UniProtKB/TrEMBL annotation:
Pfam families: Thioredoxin, TPR_19, TPR_20. Coiled coil: none annotated. PROSITE patterns: THIOREDOXIN_1, THIOREDOXIN_2. This is Tetratricopeptide repeat protein. Keywords: Disulfide bond, Electron transport, Redox-active center, Transport. Belongs to the thioredoxin family. Residues 43-155 form the Thioredoxin domain. It comes from the Bacteria.
Amino acid sequence: MQPRNMSMSGVVDLGAVKAAQEAKTKAEQARAEAVRQGGGGAISPADLVIDVDEAGFESDILQRSAEVPVVIDFWAEWCEPCKQLSPVLERLAVEYDGRFLLAKIDVDANQMLMQQFGIQGIPAVFAVVAGQALPLFQGAAGETQIRQTLDQLVQVAEERFGLTGLTVDPDAVPGGGGAASDAEVPVGPYDALLEAAVQALDAGDLGGAIQAYKNVLADDPGNPEAQLGLAQAELLRRVEGLDPQRVRADAAGKPQDIEAQITAADLDLVGGHVEDAFGRLIETVGRTAGDDREAVRVRLLELFEVVGAEDPRVIAARRALARALF
């Protein structure tokens, strides 16, 4: 399977909206199945680095990315910088102890994957998290830069998608699927409610999903999965049934109408135009005052929550918002 349906820029889309909740559920189900089959769900350190081809892309990368961030190293035998970078990535994959999985793709043998990812030169390193692909860096990179990038990746994967990585056991048999264990998979106190929210989203019941997330937050106001899920579900409900052409025409023709700008920003974000959504509202903040300005600011903060606080686009937009306000 080729990654033609994947979001190559990490933007918000209908598939990504549910990924945060589904990813954790799928990971727990996979670990539970490993326990039932006599394994503890742990893997050998040798299994943290895998070779992947086009035939195995779906099972080795897309499916695994619902459980752990998958870092992809595009390389070739003739590429000298690759020979310097690849060993560093392999060593760090073991050092990070299951917080990410390293997939190596030989571009000479997998030209289609190289084209699908839009790679112009190697070495090139991407990540896939909960089915969403994003570029990490291209060309030679120092170990300090690589570590900083990986640290940010695993943090975002855990905070936004609930991916805590793989369990690594030095005694596990390489390729054996894990070591024997009688341990049971822990169940969180809100897993049933979060699963109910996912099921509501699957059924198109946005109101039911919103209520399920609110039920979690009533007892645990800081629950990151519920906060993200609620923000995304409310965004989807706001744009449900809108006519995109009319919304954009209203926003273009009524620059002083804050509701028109807010609605257009919602639509921009769902369509993946993250910078456009942020820029539209920041400009509106700059030309409004009082209650109107506050309404726009609050919506902008809600959209920040949807994208994620660690996203570079959010960080840049926060700085721009501060300049517009002060």
